[in-house]
Amino acid sequence: MLKTIAALALGLGVAAAATPASAQVDLGSGFSVTGTITGATDYVFRNISQTRSRPAIQGAVELSHETGFYIGSFASNVTFPNTNARQEVDLIGGWRHTIDSFTIDVGGTWYTYPGYDAQPGQYELAYAEAILKLKYELEPVTFLGTAAYSPNFFGRSGDGWYLEGGVDVKIPVIDVTLSGRLGYQWIERNNRFGAPDYLAYSIYVSRPIAWGVSVSAGWYGTDISQSECGGLKVCDGRFIASVSWTF
């Protein structure tokens, strides 16, 4: 989409701002589980608001195995103009592997909107996306890359491609991570999506507090004008703050 106009990820698609430090519960036999609860001032997907600039409460859980395979889910409230979509529930699965400082993550996400009913002239919102993530750690800097493809993107808008590069810089003295992301979204049928192909950019900081709690804050923007966004403000740049608890 515009998950937001026609109605629309890392994962890890995942929460509104930054990802908290990971924690895992060992289940035995090579399995472990981790979960996160997040409260944010807004929920953006590739920097377009999914809640019409309103707060979001989100949850995520992942079950992983020592072989690298994992499955998980993400849920959040959403508010799309002129639709009855009020929640998003994503199903996630894949395989990740780390060799020295390099991590590869190959997976997919099925984005669903339980309770949504397409009215005359509206399209189904649910869609699937294949996602490749790469990470290289060179302390105190981490380089990240994401490539995603959907054969029928949000709102039945045809082929959707997304490429993103990013960097995280740890500042040990104050225990803060400074992050930047730059991505580009291509959509085959822009009229169904509700906006043109666009650039997404963000810069934010995150910091662990204690007991699995972390906070983050930053600026998220696109190069989509308000007129190109159907007259809505969901594509405008915005400041987002969040607090997360990982268990």
Characterization of the model:
The protein has a single domain (25-246), classed as Porin (Beta Barrel), CATH 2.40.160.40. The chain starts with 24 loop residues before the first strand and ends with a strand. It has a 12-stranded antiparallel beta barrel with strand order 2-5-6-7-8-9-10-11-12-13-14-15. It has a two-stranded antiparallel ribbon with strand order 3-4. It contains 1 helix and 15 strands, in the order ββββββββββββαβββ. The protein is an all-beta fold and 247 residues long. A hairpin with a 2-residue loop joins strand 9 (127-138) and strand 10.
Throw out a few tags for this protein:
single chain, 247 residues, mainly beta, Porin, 12-stranded antiparallel β-barrel, two-stranded antiparallel ribbon, 15 strands, CHP02001, signal, DUF481 domain-containing protein
Per the principal axes of the C-alpha atoms, what is the gross shape?
globular
- Please identify the top-level CATH class: Mainly Beta
Low-confidence stretches: 1-21
- Calculate Rg over CA atoms: 17 Å
Query: Which strand order does the major sheet show?
Result: 2-5-6-7-8-9-10-11-12-13-14-15
CATH superfamily label: monomeric porin ompg
Per the CATH scheme, the topology name is Porin
Label the structural class. Answer: mainly beta
Number of strands: 15
CATH architecture assignment name: Beta Barrel
Order of secondary-structure elements: EEEEEEEEEEEEHEEE
Task: Tell me the major beta sheet.
Answer: 12 strands, antiparallel, barrel
